[in-house]
Amino acid sequence: MGRYSLAEFILFEVLHILVFFPTRHNLYRAVILALMIYLAAKIYITTEATEPAGVVYAVGHTIALNFGFTAYLMCTEGSFPNHWRRFRDEIGAGADANGSGNLPSNFPFVKKFWWMLDITHSSRMVGWVQEPKDCLPPPPPPSRTTFLWNTLLKLITNFLLLDLLTYVFAQNPVFDPRVHDPTDSPETYLAAVPLFRRAPYVLAFGLWLALFFKVLHNIAALVFVGLGRSSPTLWPDIWGRWGDAFTLRKLWGCMLSGPGKLVANKILRFPRGTNLSSYTQLYVAFFLSAVFHFGGEFMYERRMVYRSFKFFPLQAVAITLEDFIIFIAKHLLLKRGIKLNPGNPDESWAEAVVRVVGYCWVTLWFCLTLPGYIDGASLAGNYTMDRLPIAQFLFDRWKPSWA
Question: pTM score > 0.85 for this model?
Answer without folding.
Answer: yes
